[in-house]
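On clarity, I found the account of how folds are encoded harder to follow than it need be. What matters is that the chain and its backbone geometry are given together, residue for residue. I therefore recommend that a typical entry be quoted early in the introduction. An entry of this sort, consisting of the sequence and the corresponding backbone structure tokens, reads as follows:
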Amino acid sequence: MPPALVKKIADETVRACATEGVRSVVASQGGDMVAGSPAAFADFIVAERARYATIVRESGMAVE
């Protein structure tokens, strides 16, 4: 994805998440807002995929 588009999406997401309406809906559903950069989010996704791959592999789960 072009960096300018990533920045635009990230900026608009931050702006939307800063509104009281979004914050209250997320909080009412037990969510927690965490701000970060697109690069930090990408790093988080990479780490989570690795973590869950280990869990799936060690559990012996398989797709049927």
User: Anything to note?
Assistant: Residues 38-59 form the longest helix (22 residues). The chain has three helices and no strands.
